[in-house]
Amino acid sequence: MTVWLEVEGEKRRVELPGEIGAGSGAVECLVDGRSIMADVRFLQAGVLSLLIDGRQYRCVLDGDGVVIGRRRFGFEVADPRSLQGRRGAGAGTDGPRPVKAPMPGRMVRVLVEVGDEVEEGQAVVVIEAMKMQNELKSPKAGRVVKIAIAVGDAVGAGDVLVVVE
Amino acid sequence: MIEKVLIANRGEIALRVIRACREMGVATVAVYSDADRGALHVLHADEAYRLGPAPAAESYLRGDLILEVARRMGADAVHPGYGFLSENAEFAEACAAAGVTFIGPPASAMRVLGSKTRARQAADAAGMPRVPGSVTGLADVAEALRVATGIGYPVMLKAAAGGGGKGMRAVTRAEDLAAAFAAASSEAERSFGSGEVYLEKLIERPRHIEIQLMADEHGSCVYLGERECSVQRRHQKVIEEAPSAVVSEDLRRRMGDAAVRLALSAGYVNAGTVEFLVDDAENFYFLEMNTRLQVEHPVTEMVTGLDLVHLQLRVAMGEPLPLTQEDVRLRGHAIECRIYAEDPENHFFPSPGLITRLIQPSGPGIREDCAVYEGWNVPLDYDPMLSKLVAFAPTREQAIDRMLRALDEYVIGGIKTNIGLFRRILMDEDFRAARIDTGYLERLLAEGVAPVLEDVPEDVVALAAALFAASARRETLAAPVVSEESRWAVAGRREGLRL
Description:
The structure holds two protein chains of two kinds. By secondary structure, chain A is mostly beta strands. Chain A has one helix at residues 80-86; strands at residues 2-7, 10-15, 27-31, 34-44, 47-52, 55-62, 65-68, 71-77, 97-100, 105-110, 117-118, 123-129, 132-137, 142-147, 154-155, 160-164. In chain A, the strands form three sheets. In chain A, strands 1-2-3-4-5-6-7-8 form an eight-stranded antiparallel barrel. In chain A, strands 9-16-14-11 form a four-stranded antiparallel β-sheet, with no helix packed on it. Chain A has a four-stranded antiparallel β-sheet with strand order 13-12-10-15, with no helix packed on it. Chain B starts with a strand and ends in a 5-residue tail after the last helix. In chain B, α2 links the parallel β2 and β3. Chain B has 17 helices and 22 strands. Chain B has an eight-stranded antiparallel β-sheet with strand order 13-12-9-10-11-14-21-19, sandwiched between helices. A five-stranded parallel β-sheet of chain B has the order 3-2-1-4-5. In chain B, strands 7-6-8 form a three-stranded antiparallel β-sheet, covered by helices on one side. Classes of the chains: A mainly beta, B alpha+beta. At the A-B interface, β1, β2, β4, β5 and β6 of A face β15, β16 and α16 of B.
């Protein structure tokens, strides 16, 4: 089975043998064409032990990431075409930029109005979550073109709250 | 005799109290809000009762509802844990009036020692050194200016009913005092329902060291050593340890004696903690008294070998303390890390949500007081504390290394946590050398919280990710395609229902 991935922003191609994790010892896997002999064992759902050259790696699946040792690496399963399409998109300071809620919470203050000019890093809204009030800042200098929420609203993680153009 | 205890709290402290009760053969009643129906304290209690919606003001802070549950369930005592109603003298009084034992100090002692200004007057009366400043609440800015000029800048404004860093402002110049006074007072009003603030001299680079007390109603009071709580962020403790690396036998005895004097003078009973600031010259100054069990009590339990919640229950039953000051022996070193659902790399934003993965540390010398599990949705309505990880070892150095080892074993997936921050602190040279004061963590954070990372070959990461992706794909292919309707039909057949 061939798996196309983007790991920490890098495109990777991994070829896996058909049968894995049966306890038969090391199997050959190819990462970007390089051969790795790995003894693979799924210990429980989302927890994997990899033995490579005698070194043990405890790998834990965490949402869209894998935790190995103390580090978490984000990854995405993808095919090569879709990866090419997304390169370069979303970056830069041109065009509208949203201020998104980094966590769920409740809107307690809106510090700007539509049409206001804001500086990069200027606080635009305050969300309360877990007994803490958190200021969210503008990602760029520009003009507020949209306010998508009102004081008292519940917000979800990733919700667009304000748009600065 | 107490036979059934209602635990008026949630989270790890509720579970902690339930466990102690069970060990002592005492039945337990949990209370919960709608956000906590699936919480571990509900699961572990003998009985559980819904209080109301998620906001604390409509559930865990409803003393009237809690007492009603106690009456209905036949609970003869209430343990308040920490936070919520634990330092609420009216609630303690209401318990007494309802014939329910409040497992904590009497309301009268709480009134004296729970208010910071009244406690300062009591400390003066008990001959305890305290930070120079106003003993009573300040009437207005003019009085604040007068006091500040008298003791000299820098000064600290503090809420009389405060806690957790709320209503506090440091002021270095007279011209900033008026604005800081207004800000501290309004924050205090919002947080504690009282805008009263007082002012004291800001001690430069102090350590925050506190003495744990236990007193019975027969006039005995012992101190159980000290805890070093200098590692703080925004006046909130992050790491606590016992004993303090800088407290000598002599200083411990002097602080302990002073704390006991204060408690006895106020008629204090049950567990309490006297907080001090300590300077380089081993001078100590009374800060405030916490009239409840504290978050950091486990480090004292580890070095004294005592179970403080057991003692709380025995004292509440009217038993005399089973030990004298001479019986208190400290051994080894304990460190506690407060594991929070927050993101140190992104302004410490809170991070509530689903815990998708939980691998808890264990092994020699590790204790974890925790109330979360894999699949638990950390609600956004309460404090972000997930667990308290405690490492115990014969020496401080070994306890630090043990804690680092435990942190390496710990995996909490799905949400952000401050585990990486603890690695950063525990590997810091100044922390390891115990060169800490209450400003230590802010200085360290100013250097950034770049996580301490080890090398993992890129190919191994890619391979692991691919294996998880492939296994998920296999599971998807293997699972039968079932629509929502037919799943209900299957369940219905299994349950013998007719659909």
